[in-house]
Design goal:
The complex is a heterotrimer of chains A (341), B (256) and C (321). Chain A is an alpha/beta fold and 341 residues long. Chain A has 15 helices and 13 strands. The chains are: A alpha/beta (341), B alpha/beta (256), C mainly alpha (321).
Chain lengths: 341, 256, 321
């Protein structure tokens, strides 16, 4: 009889300890180098970037997402937008920090907010003052594929999905490996990825994850500037790319032509919306980059039709300089006579 | 000779009557004074003659209607009043003299003649040493002479001065008085002042205004014989005093 | 005295002509034997021409406004042109997205002209005096700046880098911009001849100018319109460029020891075009290697700020008499 009681007590104690072990919070180091204590597992999560949301879906942790940014809510990858719609996930604003609706986030009472180091750093103090647990990931400011992988591992740790995380990481590395083989015949191709057109032509330079991806695929990134930088047409000409891939979410043919990209005698491939996303999300979509690039290269080099519409507006440089000087001289003479009165 | 016929000036759409029906004749080639207390219309009268404000009535220069000769007027008439020296962007005295030749300058760029005339005028007024100084760095006496020079650099036939003696020390006042008289052979000079002493010293012809109306106009002798006119306008008694061959008007100090 | 004048005049005009001809010639001749494709040669040439001409327009705008508004601390921004342009650009982003640079430029010039119209109308209704223009310009600028910030909230999430505002840059110089840059430059040169002498008299005072036969209100209005239209076109093409319009007039006045606009404007134009050309070249050739382009407008504003402060201090200390 007493043996039964002792066993019962023993069993209860074991159960109790396992219960409390569940509730012990997890401490991790985020991408900003902060030590953060997170409840384990977080049940109410807000994601502030589509790449983060995509990783969560791959890790099967999407059911915890109670709030997400607008781009996540529109994401076509893995049917994210439909699923989040069914989950009634609330929108918390745009991607950039100044467009994030902090009130909505607070209203959702989240256990954890997942933010992008580059886009959301200014919100840190706000979150802290309201005692909101926030973990920063590399996200868009990932300088290499390894940075993206560390994001994946971190999220795996947070959601007890280390196995899924490893699977995803392996999948990414493998896809880059097979991608390299796929792109064998384009090995060493000089590539330029253009991402925006405001105040100059923005390209993916050194120390961006795109740069790393291109290197791993056996391609050469012609951009010599650091980070996401704005350069002139001249500089692009200097770099002598073999192909220019335009990955902007909203640029029209008009803008690209105005920027002069078609005049360089280099094939220009303009990606459509979905392919642009593939190149702009530092997350699971990286696995799809090799195919996308392969299709672009094929279109540019192997198909008969030209990928760009070259505009033969020749610069009549000498004529124009003369015209200019004549105009100025004329202005002087006219003005002089007008002023003489 | 300047004739005014029923000249009236109103500001702010008939709310303020600055001048009411002034009819008088200002003789040529003498120094004339317009006297009166503040807000009596002295400056307005000068501005009307200079065609700087709108007026009703008729002003004639040597029998010709002023409104029909505005362009020529710019060349032959100078109006001197105080200028705001705060925002002059580093204008030098020489610059000012050259600018003042605007109506008579021949070419777009400054010519040798412009410079010569400016230097000559500066010499006449003893400010040649100030030519490269900035206008906003001058003392008020120097500034007054510079302004006078800027008016004279065009050799105007008519010179209008708004309270030219107001910021001058005694010595400069005396000097100014003498200078104006000396150039009146070649020009008709009209100045406004509220200093009867200066007026009696300098002017041969005097006009007295009160609240926009003409109270007196006549020669200096005439006024000296009737100082009570001044008393009506200034509300304080005046008397004439003889000093060294000169008869001047002074106000009688009140018994305290 | 006369010799001095001749020397100054020579310096002013020769600097102006040199500053227009030399940079363009340099760009042309240094590129001609590099075997560049037509496009790149055209790009370089046009870029240098635009930076030179923009410098001319902005510098003369600054001179003219400082004289007619009797204020040494103004440049074309005071007319509200920049703020109006910015607002219109954001509005066009919202209404039809980022469709083409030409549309952006069109919107910017429309906005700039509208703001100009407002400031001029308000100023003329007030009294048409120099202070009226400054005050009304400040008011219009504040209004459009505020509205721009409001719109930015909606524009930024979609068009991230657009939040860089319209910082002046010549990076997207295109051949078809030429008439819109040449016209203001020619316009300003003609106005220089037509108005410089009259502006000299307006600086002294409104009454002073009137008695010389110059109508200061008319000159002020004409200047505001000419400067407003010209700078609006420049801003819509290239964005907001600080420093040039504000400080080159002072530099010219200091150098020539006179404030005579007939000499100051050409020299300031010369300084302006050289400065802008050099800044643009520097950012294009030196910095672009590593950091990507730094907009010339940002550089000039950065240099301009301490310069401006020094100017202010000098002014405040100098006013002692």
């Amino acid at each position: 009889m007493s043996k039964l009681i002792i066993t019962m007590v023993f069993l209860t104690l074991i159960c109790l300890t396992s219960l409390t072990a569940e509730a012990v919070p997890l401490t991790i180091n985020d991408a900003l180098g902060r030590r953060v204590e997170v409840s384990n597992p977080p049940k109410r999560v807000v994601s502030l970037a589509p790449s983060i949301t995509e990783i969560l879906f791959e890790l099967n942790a999407h059911q915890y997402i109670v709030g997400a940014d607008d781009f996540s809510l529109e994401d076509w990858y893995l049917n994210i937008s439909r699923i989040l719609g069914e989950q009634n996930t609330t929108s918390v604003g745009g991607y950039w920090w100044s467009t994030v609706n902090v009130e909505k986030i607070l209203g959702l009472n989240p256990d954890l907010v997942l933010a992008d180091k580059g886009a959301h750093r200014p919100l840190l103090e706000v979150f802290q003052s309201y005692n909101v647990t926030v973990v920063y990931l590399n996200g868009g400011s990932a300088k290499s594929v390894n940075d993206v992988l560390s994001d994946i591992y971190l999220l795996g740790e947070l959601f007890n999905s280390t196995i899924e995380a490893q699977t995803l990481a392996d999948k990414l590395i493998n896809s880059l490996g097979t991608g390299r083989t796929l792109l064998e015949k384009y090995h060493g191709l000089r590539v330029l990825i253009v991402v925006d057109f405001w105040q100059g032509i923005w390209v993916a330079g050194r120390a961006t994850y795109i740069d790393d991806v291109l290197a791993r695929l056996g391609l050469s990134n012609v951009a010599s500037t650091f980070g996401w930088s704005s350069v002139s047409l001249e500089k692009i000409y200097e770099w002598r790319p073999d192909i220019i891939v335009v990955a902007t979410p909203y640029a029209s043919q008009e803008i690209i032509r105005e920027a002069g990209l078609f005049d360089l005698d280099v094939p220009v491939v303009v990606l459509e919306r979905e392919k642009v996303d593939i190149l702009s999300r530092p997350g699971p979509m990286i696995a799809m980059i090799p195919e996308t690039l392969h299709a672009a290269f094929a279109e540019a080099f192997d198909s008969a039709k030209p990928a760009s519409t070259p505009d033969h507006r020749q610069g009549i440089s000498e004529g124009f300089t003369l015209l200019l000087l004549a105009g100025v001289a004329l202005a002087f003479t006219v003005g002089y006579y007008v002023g003489r009165r | 000779m300047i004739k005014l016929r029923e000249v009236s000036v109103t500001y702010r759409g008939n709310l303020v009557e600055a001048l009411k029906n002034i009819t008088t004749v200002i003789p040529g080639n003498v120094v004339s004074c317009i006297m009166g207390p503040n807000a009596s219309g002295k400056t307005t009268m000068l501005k009307a003659i200079a065609q700087l404000v709108d007026y009703e009535g008729r002003i004639e220069f040597n029998e010709k209607d002023a409104k029909e000769m505005v362009k020529t007027l710019r060349r032959m008439l100078s109006y001197v009043s105080a200028i705001d020296v705060r925002e002059l962007l580093g204008v030098t005295v020489l610059d000012l003299l050259i600018y003042s030749r605007y109506p008579i300058s021949e070419k777009f760029l400054t010519t040798m003649k412009d410079i010569e005339e400016s230097v000559k005028t500066a010499e006449t007024l003893n400010i040649k040493h100030l030519l490269h100084r900035k206008v906003n760095e001058l003392s008020s006496g120097e500034l007054q002479r510079v302004l006078l020079a800027s008016a004279l650099v065009r050799r105007p036939e008519i010179l209008l001065l708004d309270e030219p003696e107001s910021h001058l020390d005694m010595r400069s006042k005396i000097w100014l008085s003498g200078f104006l008289k000396s150039i009146s052979n070649n020009a008709t000079i009209v100045l406004s002042t509220h200093d009867p002493y200066f007026a009696s010293l300098t002017c041969d012809y005097l006009i007295l205004l009160s609240k926009g109306r003409l109270v007196f106009s006549g020669t200096r002798e005439h006024l000296l014989q009737n100082p009570e006119v001044l008393e009506e306008v200034y509300n304080t008694p005046f008397t004439t005093v003889k000093i060294g061959g000169y008869e001047i008007l002074v106000s009688v100090p009140l018994e305290s | 005295m006369h010799r001095e004048l001749i020397v100054k005049t020579t310096i002013a005009f020769s600097t102006l002509i040199a500053s227009i001809v030399l940079p363009i010639a340099y760009t042309y001749f240094s590129s001609i034997n590099q075997d560049l494709p037509e496009t790149i040669l055209s790009y370089r040439l046009h870029r240098s021409i635009y930076s030179v001409l923009a410098g001319v327009v902005l510098a003369s705008s600054g001179c003219m406004l400082q004289s007619t508004l009797r204020n040494p601390l103004v440049d074309h921004h005071i007319l509200g042109v920049g703020a109006g342009a910015l607002f219109a650009v954001y509005l066009s982003f919202l209404l039809h997205g980022f469709s083409s640079l030409f549309m952006i430029a069109l919107a910017a010039s429309a906005g700039g002209l509208f703001a100009l119209f407002l400031s001029v109308a308000i100023a003329e209704i007030m009294s048409g005096s120099d202070a009226a223009y400054v005050l009304s310009g400040l008011g219009v600028t504040s209004m459009f700046s505020g509205l721009s910030i409001l719109l930015l909230y909606y524009v930024a999430p979609r068009y991230g880098p657009a939040s860089l505002m319209l910082t002046g840059s010549f990076i997207h110089s295109r051949k078809d911009m030429m008439p819109y840059v040449l016209a203001p430059a020619v316009f300003m040169i003609i106005s220089y001849f037509a108005l410089a002498k009259k502006m000299n008299t307006v600086v002294i005072g409104d009454d002073y100018a009137l008695q010389l036969g110059v109508n200061p209100r008319r000159i002020r209005l004409a200047t505001a319109l000419i400067v407003g239209v010209s700078s609006s076109l420049i801003v819509s093409m290239f964005g907001m460029i600080g420093f040039i319009g504000l400080v080159t007039p002072h530099m010219a006045r200091l150098f020539l020891k006179t404030s005579d606009n007939r000499l100051v404007i050409p020299l300031a134009m010369g300084f302006g075009s050289l400065l802008l050309y050099i800044t643009d070249s520097l950012s294009r050739m030196v910095v672009a290697e590593v950091l990507g382009e730094v907009p010339a407008g940002a550089v000039t504003s950065a240099i301009g700020a301490p310069f401006f402060l020094i100017l202010l201090v000098k002014r405040l200390r100098g006013v002692q008499h």
